[in-house]
Amino acid sequence: MPKPVAYFSMEIAIDSAIPTYSGGLGVLAGDTIKAAADLGVPMIAVTLLHRKGYVRQSFSPEGWQMEAPEHWEPEQLLVRCQPVVDVPLRDRILHVQAWKRLEVGVSGHTVPVIFLDTDVPENTEPDRRITDSLYGGDQNMRILQELVLGVGGARMVKALGYPANTLYHMNEGHAAFLLLELLPDGWERHGGTDVDRVRHHAVFTTHTPVAAGHDVFSAPMLEEHLGAGLLAKAAPLIENGALNMTRLAMRFSGTVNAVARKHMDVTKRMFPESELLAITNGVHAVRWTAAPFAKLFDRHLPGWRQRSEQLRQASIIPTEEIGEAHREAREQLLHLIQARYGMPFGGSGILIGFARRSTEYKRPLLLFRNLPRLMEIAAQFGPINILFAGKAHPRDDWGKHLLKQVHEIAAKSGDLVRVAILPNYDTGLAASLVAGVDLWLNTPRAPLEASGTSGMKCALNGVPSLSVADGWWLEGGIQGVTGWVIKSPLNEGGTGAIEQDDADAHALYEQLERHVLPCFANHPDQWLEVMRNAISVNGSFFNTHRMVDQYRMLAYERFA
Ligand SMILES: *Cc1c(COP(=O)(O)O)cnc(C)c1O
User: Fold this and answer.
1) Best substitution site from 31, 356, 357, 443 to test ligand 1's pocket, by max atoms within 8 Å of Cβ?
2) pTM for the complete prediction?
């Protein structure tokens, strides 16, 4: 019998009606759970309830992001579980209850998803709000949320009857307090066996080379919040006056992995003491394949729902049918934009999608760095239409400034280069966008994109990417075959951001002018081939069926 896997993630995007995620980390978690359900992995997933979601985004007339809570009704969508567990804090006990949803796989296997909730009458009023807002509040709120997730989550898994040999998989370092919960008192004096036991039951996936993605809690902060038992276990791990959650997770996890090969190299440089694997991310094929393509696959590739690698045989699908399915998906996207935003959009020319969290390293302005040059290219090949979406974190003023600048460009845009901003990016909009655009653009500042997943969603719908050589695209991008690769001598960084951005923008325009648009405008047959290759080469591999299989072989069954 394989060991049960308890999969911990601060955010999980499992259903478009449950807004308990902010971006890629949560979507990956949702897609992992869906694949585990399909493949019969004995998994239980744990997250926080986030009663007020992340943020509902709108814009002021000047283009400044405004945020409101995203209300939803857990009572309508989830079932309350019986157990209530305690999380001991320095001066009080937190009571944590849980809500459950069952994710049902393609053959009927289920994975329970547990949403932890501190809104119980036994808690003080401020404590009842701890599980309200994803990434809301200050560092004090963050450490409390992570204690609920790590300690409350581990206790809840036990209270729900999971056995002692359960394996704990941490999706990012937010849940690493669970390791302190698993370690025995006085672990540092016990010699190796207790620590090895924990290590053989812990898997850690790190997700970003960006510093803000790695939580660090100061010693006073730990003393302020942790109960005495946990604090004593944490004390030997404090370095330079603080506890680094990534180092904690790496130290006590028997298997540590990065989310793409390049990300593994970058992470090794950041944490030279760690042994690391690379398990490249994927997306859940059935979730992200739009209806017109799902119909096509059902007809030509029966079995693709059970095993996504069947998409490899997409080369037998006639390209005319791929073109027809794409026209349908494009229509559906334009309908959605009309219905959701009251915005007519369409007309001739290429439709480019750019959507992700708005943050500096993702460089949403790179395409517009030399606007006259972009207009000149459009004058040669026809209008360039850009659909833009993404939320900035409420405290990321830089990310909000970028959005404001995109608004200013959109306001000026004319017939040659047209930009439309679609507020409140979420998985519902993403599903239509990744299928309905003609081309997906991704311009991170290398090497900061750990993996990226939107381009994988696109590939399932035959939408090629034009993307910087970073993250997953270093593995999936084949110039002129699955899409186009933005590569410049300064791609690797190290020179200074301005020089790197100039060089990458130049390379981006070169790709558009010499390769992408000539193919789109003048060689429709060749374009259809690229679409089909995106499905057969990338859709068949960059999916969570393959990814969860690798987790099983390389991590879950490693210390069987
Ligand atoms: C897929 C997805 C993301 C993640 O996109 P990346 O390309 O990995 O940055 C973020 N937000 C939503 C709503 C998504 O569907």
Assistant:
1) 356
2) 0.97
